[in-house]
Automatic annotation (TrEMBL):
Domain TonB-dependent receptor plug, chain residue ranges per copy: 70-178
Family stated for the protein in its record: Belongs to the TonB-dependent receptor family.
Protein name: TonB-dependent receptor
Species whose genome carries this gene: Erythrobacter rubeus
Coiled-coil parts of chain: none
Amino acid sequence: MRSISAGSAGSYRFTLLAGAAAFAVAMPGAALAQDNSVLADSDDADELTLEDDDSSNVIIVTASKREQTLQDTPIAVSVTSGETLEAAQIRDVLDLQTVTPSLRVSQLQSSSNTTFIIRGFGNGANNFGIEPSVGVFIDNVFRSRSAGALNDLANVQRIEVLNGPQSTLFGKNASAGVISVVTRPPQFEWGGSIEAVYGNFDQIFLKGDITGPITDTVAFSVDGSYQQRDGFGEIVNLDTDIADRDRYTLRGQILAEPTPDISIRLIADYSELDEICCQVATLVTGPTTLDAITAVGGQAAPGPFEDQNFLNIAPVNIAENYGFSGQIDWNLGSISVTSITAYRELDNFFNQDIDFTSADLSNETRSQDVNTFTQEFRITSDFDGPINFLLGAFYFDESIEQDSFLTIGEDFRDFASFVAASTGFYSAIGAPELIGASIPGLPPAAQIAAGEAALFDAEAALGFPAGSILGGGLLSNEFYSLDNEAFSIFGTVDFEPFDGLTLTAGFNYTDDSKDFVIQTTAGDPLAQINVVDTFITGATAANPALPLVTTRDEFLALPPEVQAALSAAALDAASNPLLGLAGLQFQTGFLDVPNAVEPGETNDDDFTYLLRASYEVVPEVNVYFSYATGFKASSVNLSRDSRPTVDDFTPGPVNSTFLAPSSAITDAGLATVNLSNGTRIAGPEEAEVFELGLKAQFDGVGFNLALFDQTIEDFQSFVFGGLGFTLENAGEQSVRGFEFDATVTAIDGLVLTFAVTHLDPLFDSFPDSILGDLSGARPGGIPSWSIATSATHTHEWDSGTRLITRVDYNHESNVDLNNGLPTFNLPPFNNDTIFRREVDLVNGSITLALNNGFEVGAFVRNLFDDRFISTVFDGVAQGGTVNGYPSDPRTYGGVVRFKF
């Protein structure tokens, strides 16, 4: 099914596959994991072991920072083992969601712009000033930006997805959940593997690892991967692929065990990607694209799944991510101590055509550097008595620097001239998108010439060089930096008054401080004037009876009746021909931070806590109830769309400084030309969740069920509005629902899994969104139903050779992609179309594993080539145009693997 707008809520294929999955669930019992392996905690460098030879569905996890079975862990956590990743041919974090229905992963704009969403909550990928609501930890090390968590999934032991706030267990709290990736530690026996994949789109994927002893107490491992693939799409006018893959990773580890009670694990890794991303489709073509873009010789991408693009440059995405960590575990008997020290660097660069047409209008360049140091200490008890505890401290120190440029292309002036002529250059332009119908009967070349002549006249009148307005160079030049220092103290206490009942209390105190710098310059000469203030200055200069007015103070010194007359004339298009220029001022009104009013800092602290009761009804069944709170510190809008808040500044009409009312920034004399207000900072998020869970595990059968009611107050919303991004706090967003996950070994060799998440989200309060009052509305992009189900059959011959066949299915019910678009759905267009998405993905694989370690197989992902649009956005400076990001087409290939 290819769903981009309102359509049916399901499909025939969904009915058939969901029915098959329901048959699996109808069997008694189940388990939350995606695999029937038993996994050991890599923190203690244990090898994979079976806990009970007769209990093949028992899984060991460390979601609670302790080694526990999945059944005994009173947290809503789903586990995907390395074996499942291998069998399902999952090599990219984007595909992880196909086996974890509570998780959604989306990649937008660039290869390094990936957003993780749990239970409908997630943000932060497109702006490095916004911390993600979903925290990603790799081998217990926090990856603060998603661009630093995009390594190919090589040598993974398991991935744990923890749903809901996790403040009492993770020092850098994530208000929506945690993704914890655990890799295999070095082993004291020689072993390793090598794998090669070739698939359609000329996909080549190579990975390998080797591990073994250096001495009796020191072991090592080295692993790496390389992935290259042609693009899914084509930039037609440049004859270049887009949406390709070109990345590699390298990692080395040392494990030292000088005594039986001390373990030291050192990890160093490096990864790099250099890709052309991402593919954009045009869903609706607005009048500007039809007329103005065509008039300057440009073309836009065709329909949503044509996989064709028209761009003036091929986008460049380069990211280098590297670092090291050291973990020390010291067992003192009933007390164990853990120390984790890490330092990481991320260098991220991209250059992109932001109008997504072949017309040379504007390109954006970003160069971002992130340096992060973290230190964690934990003390954990293992007493025989009724009380045990975990106490930890976490320190986080990060610096971010970003240089950004927005350029004016060679076609921009002709584009603006065409629009200026078609809208009536000497009339006030009410919408910055510059939309207007073409002048009837006037050829495009004549419209461009008319607009060009008007621009020449404006340049002469303003004293600008001919051709300087939107004539080339930089639209904006920006520098941002952010220093973030945070520390937290966290812990839990477990009290077992009698066998089977465990009462848990946990806490986290976090103190978070940010200092930021924003320095931005508007490059176009037109940005240096305000059309109202310039008219008033000119009018007073031409009237000998009036003093020359060049500042707000001079204007306010005029008699009130003169002020009123000048204001009326300046705001009247018939009197002030400069008003028509306002629509051509794309990037204006920047105020550097810090300044005398805005200190450029945030200081947050919060105490969060957990209360939980868990009870073992019988050895096979556990139940729990918990109440937890969570916290995420303030975020900063590190972009050219950062503006003073309404509390600090109020502009005058058409962003006039002369006509601006009194405000802190105005009264301090800080207001720059054309300054407007908006947002700089979004305040902290505060989360709470009530959760009731049941976990059961029987021979070959198990299941988990979690019912939850989760709320985030002041959720940090980051929305694109056609020309820029708005960062603001939603008053309150909540979600109620349940998660059910089951594993059934139906017959010998056949394992069935079924996982379903149901979400009922709500904007409890969001009165000031960019789309108006959304209070009481359902947040877009959050499907009611998400399903992940699989069937894995292993046939084993007496020789030990195995044939492993797997089919899995991922479904997301039909859902509105968003709550509307600020341009397309609001004036002047008022289009009521809401675009929708439904996901139905079927994947399959077959592997022949010989008893000598050699394996050969084949796979297909998205078997039925179902395509959907993952998200939509207003066309940049092309009001009425809607763009979107299409999903991947069908991929398939063959695998050769050797394990030794």
